[in-house]
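Quick entry between incubations.
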Amino acid sequence: MYGKGLRTLSIATVLVMGAAATLTFFYAPLDADQGVIQKIFYLHVPLAIVALCGFIAGGVFAIQQLRTGGREWDMRSYVAIHLSLVLAVGALITGSIWARASWGHWWEWNEPVLVSFLIVFLLYCCYQPLRFSISDPERQARYASVFAVAAGAFVPINFAAVRMATAHVHPRVFGTTTGGMPTRMWETFLVALLGMALLFITLWKTELTAKSSREQLNRLRRRLAPETDEAAPPLAGHEAEQPPTEPVPAH
Amino acid sequence: MTLRAALAILRKDLAIELRTRQSVPAMVLFSVTVFVLFHFGLDRDELDGPLASGVLWVTLLLATVLAVNRLFASEREDGALEGILLAPIDRTSVYLAKAAALFLYLVVFELVALPAFAILLLGPNLLDAFPALLAILLLADVGLAALGALVAGLAAETRARDLIVPLLLLPLLVPLLISAAKASQPLLALQPRAHELGKWLGFLALYDLVFVLLAVAVFDFLLED
Amino acid sequence: MAALAFASTGGRYVAAAYAVFLVLVLIWVAIMASKIARTERELTELNDLADKRPAP
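Done. Structure below.
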């Protein structure tokens, strides 16, 4: 039952994100170097961190799927990955806006977070097509899980490699001219991070509730109208009328 | 048992490759063509340092994609894959065999591609880059083979196979490319020297270890019926 | 303080970033909404189907 506790969770999310927004604009001090532009970072970095964790969580759920078989873990993995992809797109776009605002161009190779996310994004873009290309539901789940595990392991390694390869010429994300991050910025950042994490979990649970409802509905249909008996369809590529999962915004 | 089965499959693959001579010559031809493309694309007669390192490694990576696409080719034809799956062996032995085969193809291919690169595009003397370059190549080949065989397995029975392989494999290889290229840059410079070699070799080794272990753990779930 | 922030060009970039985030979340809501609507529709159909049958 995915819906359990969903209401409390969503209320908590609203409160924390509201607090984060308030803190960002009314509490956190203005950055000495970048001024108001630095405020983007309270959005961009939480997006990036939560997306990263989401991809890794997708990999962990995938391991469980491989070990125990069955749909439950596969659904959790699938939703975690597809939500993280959306957040990754958000991280890329907000990062790009920040680069443009700070340094005048829309892309910045010297920003390891941005570059890592571009690579991770390119990789996970193949997740859905890979699923779509396998019609057998059980095999689709298995292959998707293998991909999710490999990709989940890849994410931190990639981050490390890009970081190691990047020259540190740009001003640090955190800090004023006095160096180090002032407490108020840290507090705001932590609240923003918490809010983003709660948002992710809320969206994840909500989507799983919707999916699980569909599964229950299909089961009910099979019991009431056994003539239209269909085995549990794969998560990707089954029903043509199904609205596509969240389109990746072009950028 | 697993190793014996792996060796048997490996021997079969090598025998086929020796007889049909498909993968390795194609890789060589491809890489020489790409060197020519780079000559015209970059409008340069000679490369050194980061540019040389980049051209060399990108070409090696793309040639690997070529080989990966064909890695399970002999199994797909005539339904040989079902035959292997029916045998009482781990899928892991299939993986080990394919990875070993790919590694050997890469080594042989590089024996030709590197001199070609030195002749066509490289400014400084290639031999000055050795033996450090050898270490980088070997470690990189392990990584290329490990990931190539894994992705080949993932894509072996999907429909849009030749599209999925590069799209999946190349991003996964980015850390490998970063380390290999960064390590090779100073070796291929006009004044060759080793700089931060240990750091990048260490990273490559870690990358190889993680993905070999991962692939071995996970490959059993692929190719199942 | 917040009003001053948005007046500058820097402020416009910040607003753009937050707008992108909002749009992404709203797109997700829209897609989720259509999925739920479809589930509701099919549940109604199923209920009608069950009504038509004799009580088990």
